[in-house]
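Re-running 2-dehydropantoate 2-reductase to confirm reproducibility after the cluster update. Everything else is unchanged from the original entry.
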Amino acid sequence: MTNHSIGIIGLGCIGSYICHLLDNDSTHVYTRDGIPRHSPDIIVDNQTTPLRAQIKQISALTLQAIDLLIIPVKSYQNAALIAQLKHTLPDSTAMLILQNGIAGLDDFCLALPDHTIYWGISTDGLFRNTDGYVELAGNGHLLIGNIQRGKNAVNGEHAIQKIISQHPHGQWTKNIRPNIYKKLLVNSVINPLTFIYECKNGELITYHDTCTQIIQEVLNVFRCENIDFSDAEWSQAVYDVITTTAENTSSMLQDKLSKKPTEIDAILRPLIKKAALYEVETPIMQQLYIRIKQQEATYLT
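Result of re-run:
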């Protein structure tokens, strides 16, 4: 089989884990900072393993031969990254976006219309431990689908198939959009509430009424967007994730504990803006958004 060249932007939790799964010298990790002196490690099944990849800085030259570029960055980094990629990434290179919220859907598709773009949804339990290592708490699923068809995507397709085959629960879908919105619903409940209450996912069962109120507000917006869903099924999906990831610390709470910016502007803000457009009331989401932005401003200053 042809060894397709795959690039990953940065070594965050998801990027590190995909790099580990590929375990290939044809994997390139791109950094906008300096090149680390030592190969980074990841902890999987209680085993510490060095990541096998070529680490390079982003440039038109280093991106030239990449078939697929994986972008597992925080949504607030999109603008700066896109500005860089517009001048360095060949049209023939496909992209796989892995991030929370829906801001990236428009960010990448509008700015890079000639590129083939895939969207991925990961439920792997990943976190950075107190020693600074990325650690896998538990395997989830990786679902990938196409959101934009661009030029010469054949090599990108093969690279996507490789990633799916290497993941323990990798899967392709012909229609990723409903899954994007279902994940947005889950994120809209779990991320803000765990941030506010500083609790693990499973403890949200204590706040069942608030969870239900947020679910209804989000689904009311989805109805106006003509998204096809089942109230009962999607509501249950939220509680299923709360239960199955009970011991996990949400990404937004991890951001708070690390004093980093959150992705609240990619999760709640688009929903609140859409709700205003459709004259749908979202008092709980608005309160959460304001509280999170206030707390975020306090620890970021």
